[in-house]
Structure formats: structure tokens, C-alpha cells
């Protein structure tokens, strides 16, 4: 089955809007018809199996094209619209793209060589003139549906190939554990070029729900207003979204959201101090801690909301349809409370990296995805991330995970965010440096003393940072993730 048919299986004829809100709206029936016309156009112009770039902020333009590309049997390449021209050129050279769909606002800063580029007005013409295709064909669900480019270890973008089966499997699992229904309305601040953002699109389309698009998280008031005005039942964010809402907004914690049923958090570790703070402020809102990777089509584990408070540090257990184990360097499963690499298997695991057989072989072994995350499992099967293999810092020969130190510093009032990293040190090899973002600027030396006092109380001496950098704001990517200094 083509993922397009799966997503619209029960919703193509719904008499309601899929996208609602003042940033644009589109009804289910129109979205279905328009996407089919795009698919028909693409079949006629380029055939199937071609890699087609889509660059746009979240909009009905993006959604219509994304779905049309999937239905056509071509491969969608949704790009980070903040991409540097050098990385764009690298991708263009790699993927043999016959055409580009790009929002007009981006054409001032991005150039696509000699490729034909279609913006919003062109899409309107395609839909106006397009035919409604009637295709009755066998479709291989293992065909690649999309390539999502992420940052590679070499600095060059790395293309994660996801099949139609991958998208359907992960969507089915997420719908099941979040108990999504036609009544759900999701407030979307995550971009659709990011697998977490796309999962919101897929799941709500599948169940016949609705989404509200907000591309301006920096304006906290607009996010809060959208959640209330459009009676959102769900909100999804990465750690920085929750940190900013809890620490920067003066009204968020005191606002009543009568329709908000749940929130989800993924895209990195949100320290327990923030999770517990949210739970205290909104005791009737379910908080889902989730863990995943682009290579897993978005999601691998989740922590049930009733475990918040008891296991706020945990990433929970495997989602439906996924197996997880923790293995040592010999590839054998380790015991309870023993550290090892978290590996996963399921229909959601990527097909591989685009034209990168070596990296694919290192990441997928015997059908298992090797995540690069070091984890432990407790007696009841709950999983905990200790750190990433590449993030472990060695100070004087001692292995240190920065997460533990960051959690202590984040418990100090006036601290919004903290990043601990290793810097070169002649004596120790590496020394610890903490970059601290403050809520209310105060004398740096005073705050530093408070942090050191807290660290001395909770950490052994070699885990206490020797160097500090203080900032007034976080550096964030378009997905909302922290940009770490190198």
C-alpha cells in the first residue's frame, strides 16, 4: 500500500477541515483532491522513482505537495528551509532532482541551479488544470517514500531513506499509544522537514483529526492563544520549547487550557526538573516523554504519563511494534543496570543512508538499528539514556556523562538551560565547561557561586565544571533544538 492511501483510508471524504487556524486552512476533501492532481501531474512530467525537493515553512502548500509526491510514487526530499547554499548544492549534486517545489519567500536566498522551480502560484495552476487519476496498481510498500537529510558527522548532510512501510508502521504505533481519535487537534510548532513534525501530520491525517500551524514560536503569546482559541487537545515540542514556555513566559503556567489532553516531548533530553515543573503546573494534562531518531522514522520509546514523577529520567519502554535491547561491544545483550548501546528493530527502521553503504552497514546490523546512545535498563524494563557514545567526556581518565551535571545545574533557580562539554586541558586531557543560559540576568559571579555550591553538594569533585560561559538566550535551530558550540 502507498502511504498516501493509508493516511486517507478513513478520512478522504470527511466533512471537516484538516488544517485550521488563521495561518491557513484546508478541508479533507479538498486536500485529497488537490494532492491527487499533483500526483497526476508528476506522473505525467517525471514518471516515478525520482527525488523531488520540497522547501517550505509549514503551510497548506507544503502539505498538498508532500502528499502528492508520495502518491505519485516519487520520493519527497523535504529540506530545512534555513539550509546553507553550500549544503543545498551538495544535496542537489547527490540526488539527481528533476524539479523543485519552493515557497516564494525562500527564493530570495536559495538558488537551485538550472532546475525548474515551482512556487505557490504554480501549484495553484497545477491543481486548476490537473486531472484526477484513477490508478489501480500493486504498490510495493518497501519503495522509498522520502529522504530526510540530517547533519552528518563529517559536516556533510546525511540522507535517511524512509519507505512507505516505515511511515505506516510508525504512524500506527504512535496513534495507538497516544490514543488519537478524530476529535484530536494538534498545535504544531515543529517544522515538517523534521521527522517529529511529520509524525504529527501523519498521525492526525490518519485518524481524521486536525492541526493548527504556528510558525512563530518565538512569539509565545501566539502559541498560548492558539492552544486556547482552537481548543487544541495536544501540543508537541522539543526540550527548548518546554524550557522557554516554563521559564520565559509570564502567563503560560497560570493559563487554563481546558481542552488540552496531552503534550509530547522528544528531540533530545528534557531534564526531569522541567518535566516535574510542568506536571505540577498542569496536573490534568498527560505528559509523554518520547525518544527516537530520524533513522527510526521518528519514534522508538515512550514513557506513560502515570510514570512521571516516579521515573521522569526514563525514556520508558518500546512503542508497539518495536523491539529494543541494550548490547555490549560484543553485540550481546547486557544485564539489568549495565551500560550498553541501545539497539532497535521493527518495521519503522530506515532502509539506509542515501548512497552511503558504509555508514548504513555500521548503523544497521542484522536488522538492528544501532542508535549510538548509551543506556541502561532497570528491573522493571524501563530504559534510561546515559549519554551518546560521542558525548562521553573523559576527565583524568574518568568517563563522565554531561547529562548528570546539566541536571544539577538546571535545578538552580534562574537557570533556563545548561550545556556541559569537554574542552582541551593540558593536564587532564579534557576539562568540563558549562554554558549557562539565565532567566533573569544577575551578577555572573553570584550565579556562578550558587551553581558551584549546588554542584559541590550533589556531585563528586571531578564532575564539577571548571569553566563557565553565561548567555542570555539559547541558540536554536529551526526545529527548536539547541545549537551546541564546537
Question: Secondary-structure blueprint of this entry?
Answer:
Blueprint: H1 3-7, E1 17-20, E2 26-27, H2 28-46, E3 51-55, H3 60-72, E4 75-78, H4 85-95, E5 100-102, E6 117-118, H5 120-129, E7 144-151, E8 157-163, H6 164-178, E9 185-188, H7 195-207, E10 210-213, H8 220-229, E11 234-237, H9 239-247, E12 262-265, H10 272-281, E13 286-291, E14 301-303, E15 317-318, E16 322-327, E17 340-346, E18 352-353, H11 357-363, E19 364-365, E20 368-377, E21 383-388, E22 393-395, E23 398-400, H12 402-410, E24 415-425, E25 429-438, H13 444-458, E26 467-471
Parallel strand pairs: 1-10, 3-4, 3-5, 5-6, 9-10, 9-11, 11-12, 12-13, 25-26
Antiparallel strand pairs: 1-2, 7-8, 8-18, 13-14, 14-15, 16-17, 17-20, 19-20, 20-21, 22-23, 24-25
Brief summary of the model shown:
The protein is α/β, with parallel strands linked by helices. It has helices at 3-7, 28-46, 60-72, 85-95, 120-129, 164-178, 195-207, 220-229, 239-247, 272-281, 357-363, 402-410, 444-458, and strands at residues 17-20, 26-27, 51-55, 75-78, 100-102, 117-118, 144-151, 157-163, 185-188, 210-213, 234-237, 262-265, 286-291, 301-303, 317-318, 322-327, 340-346, 352-353, 364-365, 368-377, 383-388, 393-395, 398-400, 415-425, 429-438, 467-471. It contains 13 helices and 26 strands.
User: How large, in whole angstroms, is the Cα Rg?
Assistant: 23 Å
**How much of the sequence is in beta strands?**
25-35%
Question: Residue ranges: pLDDT <50 for 5 or more in a row?
Answer: none
Classification by helices and strands? alpha/beta
Integer average pLDDT: 91
Number of DSSP-assigned strands: 26
CATH topology of the largest domain: Rossmann fold
CATH architecture of the largest domain: 3-Layer(aba) Sandwich
* Number of structural domains: 2
Helix-residue proportion: 25-40%
CATH superfamily of the largest domain: ANL, N-terminal domain
Taking the alpha carbons of the first and last residues, their distance comes to: 44 Å
Spatially, the strands of the biggest sheet line up as 2-1-10-9-11-12-13-14-15
Shape: globular
Discrete helix count: 13
How can the largest sheet be summarized?
9 strands, mixed
CATH class of the largest domain: Alpha Beta
Pfam families: AMP-binding, AMP-binding_C
InterPro entries: AMP-bd_C (IPR025110), AMP-bd_C_sf (IPR045851), AMP-binding_CS (IPR020845), AMP-dep_synth/lig_dom (IPR000873), ANL_N_sf (IPR042099)
Domain AMP-binding enzyme C-terminal: 404-481
Protein name: AMP-binding protein
